[in-house]
Amino acid sequence: MKFKTLAVHAGVAKDTAYNSVITPIYQTSTFRFEGIGQTKGFDYTRSGNPTRTALEENLAALEGGILARAVATGMVAIQTVLHLLKAGDHLICTQDCYGGTERLLRLYTSLYGIEVSFIDLNRESELEASLRKTTKMVWIETPSNPLMNVTDIRKVTGFARNHGILTVADNTFLSPVFQKPLELGADLVIHSTTKYLNGHSDVVGGAVITADPVLADRISYLVNALGVAQAPFDSWLVLRGIKTLALRMKQHEENALAVARFLDQHPSVKKVNYPGLPGHSGYETAKSQQSGFGGMLSFEVDGDLEKVNRILSSTRLFSLAESLGGIESLICHPATMTHASMDPELREKAGITQPVIRLSVGIEDAEDLIADLKQALSA
Ligand SMILES: *Cc1c(COP(=O)(O)O)cnc(C)c1O
Fold it and tell me: For the chain, what is the radius of gyration of the CA atoms?
């Protein structure tokens, strides 16, 4: 079946008790046994729950995996994957990753002795130079947050496979509508389902997906052992959100492109970071591995911090808030918000400077969004 059909149907209609068309919410912690070892496939909700299973089957189908596990947040999806490592192992991470990822990796370095190199994954020389005997994992996030740098997934996964190293791709920014990292050679995909997959800014969640049977067993074991699985009601919300994912992504992209073109012409804007603009450094790579450019962009303001603050506090439709991927448009200041926890030196090295403003372009009317930005830029 094709993607849009899977988004609506995969995992969904299995209620033989009452033939409900939509997956019921099994809001229960435990399930009755009929005798020793006799269950209907579920015994305890941390280990498994039919509502969550429906979501997991859907997520696996959309990313082209054999297994997905839905977990409580994007951060525990990342943690679960990091538990594939042990003390002394080395991880190579893209340098402009999500701020929370960088914070967690630093915590794992200090707590568990997991060693991390933050590099520009697109530079082969940096990739070669950072390689160690103990390197076990490469962490890809593309397009990156908030600068929208595009990493060539095939190149990095090819390099890693030649060295027997696992690759993980954080696919939160594009969703499987526009990018399928498993097909591009990644071993694992993680999501913050809080963002586009749920898409309505009313739940936090995460997911880990793989097409490898050995990793699938290990991830299942870890989600149960760590106790990080997503609650039934939250799972139901994410599954509900996914049904309109393809439609939403199309509108997010159309609006983002219109906003990017507007900003690109504006005299108060020094630079627009949107891979859908032909002048963007990642345009060609994006076209080779993505089927769309997504709804996220950032831009650099020509002016001081006061000017930046005036723009941030003058938008009326764009709410000044963290997070992204919901139907409503958001504006954010990465240096002091999403990336505040990041090591300042690394933040500067990655180019996440004070004049950078990030937009999560929603599905409102593009004309209204542009009018809002226009008045804020001249405030
Ligand atoms: C938000 C986000 C995360 C973390 O997800 P939570 O659901 O907030 O825990 C990880 N990666 C990216 C790219 C994100 O945008």
Answer: 21
Q: Which residues contact 54 (CB under 8 A, 6 or more apart)?
A: 11, 12, 14, 23, 235, 239
Going by alpha carbons, the residue nearest to atom 5 of ligand 1 is 74
Give the model's confidence band at 342: pLDDT under 50 very low, under 70 low, under 90 confident, else very high.
confident
Please indicate whether residue 194, judged by its CB atom, sits closer than 6 Å to ligand 1: yes
- What would the two tokens of residue 22 be? 């939509």
Type of residue at 243? K
Pick the atom of ligand 1 nearest to 325's CA.
Answer: 15
| 290 bridge partner residues | none
Q: Which pLDDT tens digit goes with each residue over 92-142?
A: 999 988 989 999 999 999 999 999 999 999 999 999 999 999 999 999 999
Q: Which of 116, 156, 155, 153 is nearest to 134 (CA)?
A: 116
* Amino acid, res. 153: I
- The CA distance from 242 to 48, in Å, is 20
d(CA 49, CA 231) in angstroms, rounded, equals 9
C-alpha to C-alpha distances, 363 to 203, 231, 258, 296, 356, nearest whole angstrom: 18, 28, 12, 12, 23
Burial class of residue 229, CB neighbours in 10 A (0-12, 13-18, 19+): buried
User: CB-hemisphere CA count at 13 Å for 47?
Assistant: 6
For 19, counting Cβ atoms within 10 Å of its Cβ (0-12 exposed, 13-18 middle, 19+ buried), the class is: exposed
**Angle of the 99-112 helix axis to the 74-82 helix axis, nearest 10:** 40
According to DSSP, residue 183 is labeled: G
Q: Which residues are within 8 A (CB) of 278 and not within 5 positions of it... i.e. 6 or more apart?
A: none
Is it the case that residue 14 has pLDDT exceeding 90? Answer: no
Q: What is the mean pLDDT of residues 13-22?
A: 90
Q: What is the pLDDT of residue 36?
A: 97
Catalytic residue flag (residue 170): yes
- In degrees and rounded to multiples of 5, residue 115 shows phi and psi of -95, 140
Dist. CA 194 → ligand 1 center (Å): 7
This prediction's pTM: 0.96
Question: Looking at ligand 1, which residue's alpha carbon is closest to its atom 8?
Answer: 74
98 as an active site residue: the answer is: yes
Degrees to nearest 5, angle at CA 2 with 235 and 296: 60
Domains annotated on the chain, with CATH: 3-242 (3.40.640.10), 245-377 (3.90.1150.10)
